[in-house]
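Quick one: co-fold with fructose -6-phosphate.
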Amino acid sequence: EKGGYDHFMLKEIMEQPKSIEDCLRGRVIAEDLHVKLGGIQQHLPDLLNANRIIILACGTSWHAGLVAEYVFEELTRIPVEVEYASEFRYRNPIVGKGDVIIAISQSGETADTLAAIEMAKERGATILGVCNVVGSSIARASHEGAYTHAGPEIGVASTKAFTAQLTVLTSMALMVAKEKKSISENRLSELLRDLEQVPAKVEQVLKLDSAIESIAEIYKDASNCLYLGRGYNFPVALEGALKLKEISYIHAEGYPAAEMKHGPIALIDEEMPVIFIATRDSSYDKVVSNIQEVKARKGRVIAIVTEGDALIPKMVDHVIEVPNIHEMLMPMISVIPLQLLSYYIAVMRDCNVDQPRNLAKSVTVE
Ligand code: F6R
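Sure, here it is.
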């Protein structure tokens, strides 16, 4: 059942080229400039005319929502807010007709997310579900939706569901942008081509597993860890930190790298591993300065960089090279080494990787 792997988590990490491929199948055909999610045809006009998109989710799914915020705003120019479902539902939010809610949930059963969309629906908003489990409560409570088709995710730590969520959300943003004509044909074509290449590039990153295992060996006894990224990689920093804390019980925090100097920089000394997601994108130069600030305080730096980067490897303790791709799609690639790093660290610490203490796969109580 674990397909020859020691844990479901590793199996699910390794399945990602296929789960992303499954998620794209029939929906994206770059050659024909085709991008369409069959499940959201009826409510596409609501999306095109939306005053605002509100993304509701919890945990890892909320991190996927943060990436989607940047992607939707950039491509469609519709204002997006991303909210923790548990906060949204209890603060008498301003929501109604003209708002489109995108609810993201692997299980489709998260109690807070379900209650939040029910409230928004009552107040007149359109609800679109992005769920993995077919026929789940959130999928049923939504007006329409698009499944992530990642297959069953058994490991409590979400991995393949996250990359599938990013795939669906990016496709959705591209579909809206195409319809709204808020994107040029050239850019659409470039992004669709890059999207089709994601599975092969993820495959390439998965081959780094033994190199990542060696880095895990060095840092397995750390008691704290900081994850930093900017722009599209900021939510990846949050996700990397969540993966590490939930399965290895190492205290980890993710931050937008620029926020470091507003507090967390005080934590940095030679004992503190800092993981930078520092791929070549529009925030690259800024991230390089942030790495310098950490090195000046003797932090130990592991950097996820774009293949061929000549600068960062000279500055840091370890580098993990990932293939280049459009920055909007990079989270699907840059998160992979972080999943593997947490996995190996947790295994080395003898933790119950698939069923971490105190956690449940679907949180059906608030
Ligand atoms: C983290 C994790 C949780 C879930 C969260 C939401 O690895 O698994 O943070 O992402 O409980 O669950 P779903 O997506 O099922 O609503």
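If it helps, The chain has a mean pLDDT of 97.
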